[in-house]
Amino acid sequence: MEHSSKLLALIRAHEGYRGRPYECTAGKLTIGIGRNLDDVGISEVEALYLLDNDVHDCVLDLYRIFPNKGDEIGIDDLCEARQHALIDLRFNVGGTGFRTFKRMIAAVKVAEFDRAALEMLSSKWADQVGRRAKFDARLMKLGYYPER
Fold first, then answer.
1. Global pTM?
2. Is 53 exposed, middle or buried (0-12, 13-18, 19+ CB in 10 A)?
3. How far apart are the C-alpha atoms of 73 and 69, rounded to whole Å?
4. With b meaning 16 or more CB within 10 Å and e meaning fewer, what string describes 99-110?
5. I need a labelling partner for 40 at 20 to 30 A (CA). Which of 24, 70, 94, 135 fits?
6. Are 35 and 42 in contact (CB under 8 A)?
């Protein structure tokens, strides 16, 4: 059954929109337009949609950090594996957290990928996430996905 725009507008008018989680009047964790996260959660399709949006935001941010101009390496100059390592790190730690990796960023900008990988591994993040950091650092160092 298709839902009319009139019905959707009615529900939105009653529920309102909240972009951050909140506790509804029934005490349930809720987000968006009345989405009960405690009881309903989100579907895998919804999670993948959110992931795609979040990765898009990460990529846009990396274009600001690694612009494609001048003598420095830009994000488009990197191979897919190195781009993926940076995107995964940026996704995991957020924009502010990523910018704390100053020496790693500087190493990438001058194509010193071994040093960039070492900087990734000598971080608090690496201690926190373990295998994820080791894998991303390996992508950075090698420039390709290793055989498992």
1. 0.90
2. exposed
3. 8
4. eebebbbebbbe
5. 94
6. yes
Beta pairing class for 35-36 and 29-32:
antiparallel
Distance of CA 116 to the CA centre of its chain: 19
Distance CA 68, CA 65 (A): 10
Cβ contact 31:18 at 8 Å = yes
- Which tokens go with 49? 């949609």
Judged by DSSP in three states, 49 sits in: helix
Could you give the domains of the chain? 5-36 (no CATH), 57-142 (1.10.530.40)
Q: What is the full per-residue pLDDT of the chain (148 aa) written as tens digits?
A: 788 999 999 999 999 999 999 999 999 999 999 999 999 999 999 999 999 999 999 999 999 999 988 888 999 999 999 999 999 999 999 999 999 999 999 999 999 999 999 999 999 999 999 999 999 999 999 999 988 6
